[in-house]
Amino acid sequence: MDLSRLAVHTITNRPWSPRECIEHYADAGVRGITFWRRDFEGVEPDWMGKTARDAGLAVNGLARGGFFTSEEWWDDNRRALDEAVAVGAPQLVLVCGGCHDKTLETARAVIAERLATLLPLALAAGVKLALEPLHPMYAAERSALNTIAQAHALCEALGSPSGLGIAVDVYHTWWDPNLEPGIERAAQLNRLFAVHVCDWITPTTDLLNDRGLMGEGCIPLRTITAACERAGFGGFYEVEIFSNRWWATPQEAYLSEITRAFSACL
Amino acid sequence: MDLSRLAVHTITNRPWSPRECIEHYADAGVRGITFWRRDFEGVEPDWMGKTARDAGLAVNGLARGGFFTSEEWWDDNRRALDEAVAVGAPQLVLVCGGCHDKTLETARAVIAERLATLLPLALAAGVKLALEPLHPMYAAERSALNTIAQAHALCEALGSPSGLGIAVDVYHTWWDPNLEPGIERAAQLNRLFAVHVCDWITPTTDLLNDRGLMGEGCIPLRTITAACERAGFGGFYEVEIFSNRWWATPQEAYLSEITRAFSACL
User: Fold this and answer.
1) Are A258 and A246 spatial neighbours (Cβ–Cβ below 8 Å)?
2) I want to staple A138 with a disulfide (CB 3.0 to 4.6 A). Which of A132, A142, B29, B129 is the partner?
3) CATH number at residue B40
4) In this structure, are residues A192 and A144 in contact, taking their beta carbons and an 8 Å threshold?
5) What is the pLDDT of residue A219?
6) Within a 13 Å sphere around the CA of B73, how many CA atoms are in the beta-carbon half?
7) Number of structural domains, chain B?
8) How far apart are CA B192 and CA A106, in angstroms?
């Protein structure tokens, strides 16, 4: 895959400040950047967005809103939308929230209801909402939305507005027997808003922060990106890697590995 | 749930020898036992089966065969069938094998093909085969079969013989939006061979050995067992808990907790 399709999430290089991310990404030929809300601690998002664009990077999105099963969901999502507008991100990635002390069924109903409440605000702000199904191992704590099929159903339950779509992360979905049809359907309906890439390594020793660089694991990346391309996806492939192992290494060399792996494995 | 429906997997009390399991289970009012193949190291399975039955326990099954993506799959499954016959287990639980260095698609095809080869032997031996879908977090290393829907499809691809069915483990499947319909369909088709219970705790700190006792986590056990009962399931609910935490405690007190939790939470 050509580097013109490469975006990187700032969390991937967690040891760097967002400003360092911008500089290094631009130098390395990365074309898009996805900010994380933590990047705005002590920094104005509008300044951050301008800095990225001035460096030649497209601001591809903002991670993360959602968390609909938490008490602060309303204020938190309003702030996230404001930040998305300020940084110039066309979309906000939503991690929908786990079931915690609710049943999954209840949590899923709460997610649908609160998403419906948030949606008009997002549409009015011109910020698209990208539902990210998370791996079933996060159903309790992070997201009761766990498959692409569920994300499609949720879009449809809300009337399939053009501002609501799906972020497919290969880490969360590679195991799904319905992955390819789900991707194809999303792309055909202009609902495939984002594709996140990394790899699943074995053994996985930490549920959160033990992701692999593309090529280190068993995810058939080229098969998945081919499905995206066939269905007409034209956006960025976003590298999003949580990895204690990689975070402990020199980040410049790591970024070189990322661009190399992106070209070689996608 | 009445204790007459309680079976326990010997692995649940890993610190005990299988003979200690038999004695303590019988004393505690447990009615069924599921052996693990490791129980037969240095012990004849026919003697073990007789000892369990003499103590008043039904031998409910043998765990685990399958692992179709390993090189030793054929010899290993033949031995497992022999052991199931010898111990008097009516069914062998199959963990189908991960994708390892194959793609998931290839692994799934290999599983179907090798299962088809094994099936006639199992039918001839009078041992039922219970396909156990494993949680998607085990797709790489342990099982490319990850949902009840996939297990149904596999049964049907092989002609739906009466000796082939599904073991539903709540740990692996609780997140699945299609869990209840999958259970109901399995029970109605006499394909629900086994139900394994435990709980999903948060945070989960180990992908393998951090399961919870029923009631410690977020799995809606009563909702799930109600679905099983409604659909006509009349078998044991088998307690299968891998837990470093519980294994480090005195096992007699733990077994009391198991019977208490079984009555209280199912």
Assistant:
1) no
2) A142
3) 3.20.20.150
4) no
5) 97
6) 20
7) 1
8) 26
For A166-185, what is each residue's pLDDT tens digit? 999 999 999 999 999 999 99
pLDDT digits (tens, 9 = 90+) for B16-35: 999 999 999 999 999 999 99
A224, with CB counted inside 10 A (0-12, 13-18, 19+), is buried
Give me A48's structure tokens. 């951050």
**pLDDT of B100 strictly over 90:** no
Q: Is residue A241 helix, strand or coil?
A: coil
Shortest alpha-carbon distance between residue B103 and chain A (Å): 7
Asked whether residue B196 carries a pLDDT value surpassing 90, the answer given is: yes
Q: What DSSP character marks residue A133? A: P
Query: Rounded to a whole number, what is the distance in Å from the CA of A150 to chain B's nearest CA?
Result: 8
- The helix/strand count (H/E) of chain B reads as 10, 8
Residue B18: domain span: 3-265
Name residues whose C-beta falls within 8 Å of residue B10's C-beta, 6 or more positions apart in sequence.
Answer: B16, B18, B21, B33, B34, B35, B36, B39
Contact B156, B110 (CB under 8 A): no
- Asked if the Cβ–Cβ distance from B136 to A139 is below 8 Å, we say no
Average pLDDT over residues B248-256: 98
Q: What is the mean pLDDT of residues B132-148?
A: 98
User: How does DSSP classify residue A164?
Assistant: E
Nearest to B255 by CA among B69, B2, B3, B38: B3
Q: Using CA atoms of A111, A114, A119, A120 in order, give the dihedral in degrees to the nearest 10.
A: 160
According to DSSP H, which parts of chain A are helical? 18-28, 45-54, 73-87, 104-125, 148-157, 170-173, 179-188, 221-230, 244-247, 251-265
* A101 pLDDT more than 90: no
**Which stretches of chain B sit within 8 Å of chain A by CB?**
98-101, 103-105, 108, 135-137, 139-141, 146-147, 149-150, 174-177, 200, 202-205, 207, 217-218, 220, 223
The type of residue at A59 is V
| Mean pLDDT, all residues of chain B | 97
With beta carbons less than 8 A apart as the criterion, state whether B90 and B61 touch: yes
Cβ contact A193:A130 at 8 Å: yes
Output the pLDDT for position A102: 87
Rg (CA), chain A: 17
Structural element, H or E, at residue B222:
helix B221-230
pLDDT in tens, A141-163: 999 999 999 999 999 999 999 99
Q: Of B104, B108, B176, B179, which to mutate for an interface test with A (greatest number of A Cβ within 10 Å)?
A: B104
Q: Which two tokens stand for residue B46?
A: 């026919």
Residue A104 clears pLDDT 90, i.e. is over it: yes
Whether the link from the prior residue into B136 is cis, omega within 30° of 0, is no
User: ipTM, 2 decimals?
Assistant: 0.94
